[in-house]
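Much of what follows relies on a compact textual record of a protein's fold. A complete example follows; check for yourself that the lines match position by position.
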Amino acid sequence: MIELRQVHKGFGANRVLRGVNLSITGGQSMVIIGGSGTGKSVLLKCILGLIHPDAGQILLDGEDAAKAEREAFLARFGMLFQGGALFDSLRVWENVAFRLLRGIMARPKAEARAIAIEKLRRVGLRPDVADLYPAELSGGMQKRVGLARAIAAEPEIIFFDEPTTGLDPIMAGVINELIREIVVEMGATAMTITHDMSSVRAIADRVAMLHDGVIQWTGPIAEMDTAPDPYLQQFIHGRANGPIEAVR
């Protein structure tokens, strides 16, 4: 469903992506792992068209994403942002229904609110949360609201940017379980970037490791622990010694 061919992106002298090749099959959950600063977020932004690659091609269902009609292209995606990225001045339901209140997805206000409340229920939040503001919620509740917003428009593809950052282990487990359930339920294609190996094991069908600007290893989650790649093994086991140099 998503294919990257020799994607390059640099910022001045800093060559972040150096020829990324990656295929993501429809209906599967792909998790991208790699150290801080390896370009995971840059890769995600390139796919969404928030930044433009210097070279290479990104295809969605075989069509060049760079040539797609922008609003229709983005309508196919949902996104759970790392920090929640909720609008402080909007009530919870308005955050969830943000896309349903404007643009090509615009619905009547009452219908948008009803959808938002149904999605809040799906992520385990009561209807009375709908009229609160984000500042009145805990971090875990804010993350759930972000997840409800990501699925509100029934997207075909959902991106998760560090979905468990800032959460305690129990809440992180709850979010991982919700993500897995929702992706399977919706039949959506998912791409997650994370450092959290418990998230990887909970939500991935396939894993790809980004290192030094290229995909160092990719394969099914079942093969990750036994794969011979030394970069992968150092990363997933958190070893200080290995081919990946730790910044000291």
Observations:
- DSSP finds nine helices and ten strands in the chain.
- The chain has a mean pLDDT of 92.
- Residues 88-149 form one domain.
- The radius of gyration is 18 Å.
